[in-house]
Amino acid sequence: MLTYNDLVKPSVLKQPIYQPGRPIELVALEFGLDPNEVIKLASNENPLGVSPKALAAAREALASIAYYPENDCYFLREKLASVRNLAPEQLIFGAGSNEIIQMLGHAFIEPGVDVIMGKSAFISYKLFTLLFGGNAIEVPLIDYTHDLKGMAKAVTANTKLVFLPSPNNPTGTWNEEKEIFNFIHEMPDHLVFVYDEAYVEYIDNPPDLRPLIAAGKKIICLRTFSKIYGLAGFRIGYGYGNSELIDLLNRVRPPFNVSSIGQAAALAALDDNEYVEKCKALNQSGMKQLEEGLESLGYEVVPSRANFLLVRFENSDKVYQYLQVKGVIVRPLKGYALEEHLRISVGTEEQNNRVLSILAQYQK
Fold this sequence. Notes:
Elements: H1 4-7, H2 10-13, H3 24-31, E1 39-40, H4 52-61, H5 74-84, E2 91-94, H6 97-108, E3 114-118, H7 123-131, E4 135-139, H8 148-153, E5 159-165, H9 177-186, E6 192-196, H10 210-214, E7 219-224, E8 237-241, H11 243-252, H12 260-269, H13 273-296, E9 300-302, E10 308-312, H14 316-325, E11 328-329, E12 331-332, E13 341-345, H15 349-361
Parallel strand pairs: 1-11, 3-4, 3-5, 5-6, 6-7
Antiparallel strand pairs: 2-8, 7-8, 9-10, 10-13, 12-13
Helix pairs in contact: 4-12, 5-12, 6-7, 6-11, 13-15
């Protein structure tokens, strides 16, 4: 009798599975801990949670949950276009920016297509490239930072997509605006440059690629409401670029892919600038607190402009398990070719102090 493995596409059997940060409830169950005492610093979530305005809007939207969501995110699109000084037709929305990466795969990746990315970059770039039968060309980082010159050298006639996250997840490193602009100006016409700005709200004066998009460069920028806006559970992100590119992606976008509650929460979050500034300030002070504390304990910390730190340990597996037993969840990084490192999200002052206190007791 044939099995499902005999029927499925062969590429699926070789497809890696995404490994997220472990949820609080499972860690508490495994180690006999009180879930209220477990802190999760594994997935770069906002330690202050969702903005009050977004939460109120989401609760109100529940009253209409029997209806399908607005398919084109009309009201959110109009609001965001005004906020970001874009035309509404330049925007596309997804169940997180992760879904827009998948849309790019549907539209551009097939067997024989090369997709360039950093070796230790967000794993979804590689996963979707492999899923659609493309060749994942992974360029090693230099000092934990994307090597744009190396990526330019990796371009071939078969290359269609180049991914650059800045700041990069999981290293927290970034590329300067001049370097990024030079890469875009020199890239051949058959490439689409995918610029992942998931952590852009944590940066002062970030690179602005909108003038290059307006000049006709083949670019799509990705953003998310999951990080500083605290809407990770609603799964909503967006991309912006040339309207012709957005039209192509809408052809492969699933219908009703963004929930009505997510749309309502995101719409309200855009008006909660005071909350965003509060979260940004907390992140900056927390980053300093964690970085100085970890370095004082003798650990190597990679400078970051995101909301997490990449930290090197002599035995990262042992430290990861030790922290879990103590009720702290962080992120191991074997799948990112960073076996000696853990990624630690910036928490509240109290949460950061707890991590530092536990690590101070750890016997190296």
